[in-house]
Design a protein that fits this description.
two-stranded parallel ribbon; Rossmann fold; Arc Repressor Mutant, subunit A; single chain; RNA-binding; 11 strands; mainly alpha; three-stranded antiparallel beta sheet; about 475 residues
Length: about 475
RNA sequence: GGUCUCAUCGUCUAAUGGUUAGGACACCAGGUUUUCAUCCUGGCAAUCCGGGUUCAAUUCCCGGUGAGAUCACCA
């Protein structure tokens, strides 16, 4: 069996979004599940006008962040370097010359306006426009100042696509397309075929937008006397709303943005893979290693999938909970509230352990933990708006807070001891936990939600708990609250 | 408009010529000594429509309809 070589071949014209990640991921998985498989990154920078500064770096950064590693690429080289099409112009010229010599390419003598006129004509006649209907009889010798066109050989095609199955088209879709532009750069249509051949690519995985040009590529493979690689067409990912392909305009987020928001690479990989692929079981959570082991093109969905942010959020929570505390600790390094800067490693880990079950994205960490690091601002409306607490008289509140302060003063601040102290408090006050614990919870955190009360108190420590209870008592004593 | 493709709960999906059409997200209800979350239990919810083949069709075939892609000196 020949070595599998797949590639991801983006054009550096913007940031990397989830659609691109999925194409790259599938190609990567396919290469990785074979012992000697290779995954290649190739930059298709043949459109100088659309090129966006920094997007190649962004692309590479995104792949790295997600753990989609490549074996050959523009920044790391490889046996078939260079991996940037703009540095391969001579190669395309050579291949173009072969076509010219074989009578399969010719100089396009028309101006843009002239071609547009043909197009309008066809449209007026309600006919599909085909350039080859206007093929010049005696084209000039190509000198690089005009586009070079492929002289197609229209015919019927049937081919197999690993995802889509058997596909067929008629000769009407075959046309003379441009191989080399007037700026001397090849078109995608030409360059990718040459490069895939030169780089010995065995599988082409790409988005649905290329499926309609596939027969033209087949025609070109024939003209170049090349065996074509195996094709796999992956359906589009649709935007959350509407029925459009997910693109920049639909608010498709840059994948690095998801990372910055505190989505784990594991989540992104898992989620993107499972949009359009599953292994036929009820498993939802897949690690990269599992994906490598289980992925197969014939289980890729044929229809487009919608990007569901809520499911992504759920999945991120799942992955966060799977992490060991130490691992999670490393990953939240940049997400702590500012006030946590001076806190000890040990203290931060204790806090983190408590909020691990509550985090859905790492960026929520400050929201969930700030009162562990700085004094919260008391907000008495949290008590007065509470269904149960609002029924208490001020004297009752004072008495409960006072009892709590006293009881906790002589209590070791570890979760077990605090819990038994709290339990005793329930008995001595004769209150239900819903009332007493809510009150204490608010007095020590002033947060809409917090971890288990005994743990919270234990981690905060006696000094902070006493001070906060004292402050709450002062406020309760002050009628203007 | 031409060409190609696709079609199962709101969403991601599983399955099969015979099933109570399964799971997950979301949503709703209940439970776990406070809150939020986790976790657990339960609930709601789908085979686009019409023909045909068949004892039997969501599954195979045909036709509609709907959706997507493409028709560039973009990839």
């Amino acid at each position: 069996m020949t070595t599998i070589r797949t590639r991801y071949a983006p054009s550096p014209t913007g940031y990397m979004h989830v659609g691109g990640v999925r194409t790259a991921l599938f190609a990567f998985l396919l290469a990785r599940q074979n012992n000697n498989g290779r995954f290649i990154l190739r930059l298709e920078d043949t459109d100088q006008k659309r090129e966006v500064e920094g997007s190649a770096e962004h692309l590479i950064k995104s792949l790295n962040a997600l753990g989609i590693s490549y074996d050959e690429g523009p920044d790391i080289g490889g046996d078939f370097a260079p991996y940037k099409q703009s540095e391969r112009l001579d190669i395309y010229k050579n291949w173009a010359q072969k076509l010219i010599d074989a009578g399969r390419a010719y100089a396009d003598p028309y101006t843009g306006d002239e071609i547009q006129a043909f197009r309008d004509q066809a449209r007026a006649a309600k006919q599909p426009f085909l350039y080859r209907n206007h093929r010049p009889e005696n084209p000039p010798v190509w000198n690089g100042t005009t586009p070079l066109r492929f002289k197609s050989d229209p015919k019927t095609y049937a081919w197999y696509d690993e995802v889509m199955g058997r596909l067929t088209t008629g000769p009407e879709v075959i046309d003379d397309f441009i191989l080399i532009k007037t700026d001397g750069f090849p078109t995608y249509n030409f360059a990718h075929i040459v490069d895939d051949a030169e780089m010995k690519i065995t599988h082409i995985i790409r988005g649905q937008e290329f499926i309609s040009s596939q027969p033209n590529y087949l025609n070109l493979y024939e003209a170049l006397n090349l065996d074509h690689p195996i094709f796999a067409t992956v359906p589009h990912i649709m935007a959350d709303a509407g029925n459009k392909k997910l693109g920049k305009r639909d608010g498709a987020k840059d994948v690095l943005e998801y990372i910055k928001d505190g989505y784990l690479p594991e989540t992104l990989i898992n989620f993107i893979a499972s949009m359009g692929w599953n292994d036929g079981t009820e498993q939802e959570i897949f690690s990269m290693d599992e994906l490598i082991a289980k992925f197969s093109l014939d289980r890729v969905q044929r229809s487009g999938a919608r990007f569901d942010e809520k499911r992504l959020l759920w999945m991120n929570g799942q992955w966060i909970r799977k992490l060991s505390l130490d691992d999670l600790y490393e990953r939240v390094a940049n997400f702590w509230p500012e006030a946590a800067e001076s806190a000890s490693l040990d203290y931060k880990k204790q806090v983190l352990a408590m909020v691990q079950d509550r985090l859905k994205v790492l960026s929520e960490l400050p929201l969930l933990s700030s009162y562990f690091f700085e004094e919260p601002t008391p907000d008495w409306t949290m008590i007065s708006n509470n269904k149960q607490l609002s029924k208490l008289s001020n004297d009752e509140i004072l008495s409960f807070l006072d009892s709590a302060q006293n009881a906790l003063l002589n209590c070791d601040h570890n979760p077990e001891a605090v819990q038994s102290t709290l339990n005793e408090l329930l008995e001595t006050t004769g209150q239900k936990p819903g009332i007493l614990f809510s009150l204490i919870r608010l007095a020590v955190s002033w947060a809409p939600f917090s971890p288990a009360l005994n743990e919270t108190i234990a981690v905060l420590g006696k000094d902070k708990v006493q001070a906060r209870l004292k402050l709450a008592i002062e406020i309760a004593n002050n009628p203007t609250k």
